[in-house]
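Give me the 3D structure for TMEM205-like domain-containing protein.
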Amino acid sequence: MLGPLHLLSYSALLGTELYQTFVVTKITYQELPRPAFTTLQKRLFPLYFKGQAFLVILTAATIPPHGPSSLIGDRRSWIPFAVAGATAALNFLVYGPLTRQVMIDRVHQETRDGRAIGRKDNMSTEMRLLNREFSRTHAMSIHLNLITIGATLWYGWWLATKLDSSAAGAG
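Predicted structure for TMEM205-like domain-containing protein (171 residues):
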């Protein structure tokens, strides 16, 4: 009975990761003005990281035939979950919130400085430090997300090798 739920949760996890990372973020970055993009991202990514962490847990919990205990004894199946779980948790609990807070701090500093974030001339020391902190936390969040996606794909590859394709040709 876990099989269908497992396949659906895995599909939702991978689909959400790929769509949010490579479609939504790219289109909104290109099409929205910077303030609107920033506002959207600071609201969207906490939900995305929470959903990603939840779907990793749900997918691990529904592994056929006995849930998580089915992972014991086969490294090829539990290592991707350990990696995806750790990186998703770091984004949800640490780097996502840090990046979001620095985004907010930069907007406030921009107001105090009376300058746009993208302007490089006469940038305040505070803004320079915030930009450096944002670059660091944002890069870490991006890399953790890509590692999570990689681990999800790794597990998907392993899962696909377990499928019985003999029924596909039966007619």
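Residues 2-67+75-160 form one domain. Let me know if you want a second pass.
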